[in-house]
Design a protein that fits this description.
Largest sheet: 3 strands, antiparallel
Number of helices: 2
Number of strands: 3
Structural class: alpha+beta
Strand order of the largest sheet: 1-2-3
Shape: globular
Strand content: 25-35%
Radius of gyration: 13 Å
């Protein structure tokens, strides 16, 4: 089985920017995971112009650093 992983982040700076969304689908197109995540930063205007994920979209989502 092949899986496709897609992520959306607050930017492109490795070690600085954070995940906003993680999606995994299999080779038949079935969605295995599609989860928004709340980063520690409060805004990401440049990335938001591209990915259209707003702070409101992730306000009640799990934090990246939460183990649960």
């Amino acid at each position: 089985m092949t899986i496709i992983l897609d992520t959306e982040t607050t930017g492109l700076r490795a070690g600085e920017d954070e995940l906003l969304q993680i999606s995994i689908i299999d080779d038949s197109g079935e969605v295995l995971i599609n989860q928004y995540l709340q980063p520690s930063v409060e805004e990401w205007p440049e990335a938001q112009e591209i990915n259209h994920i707003t702070p409101e979209d992730v306000r009640n989502c799990p934090h990246v650093w939460d183990p649960a």
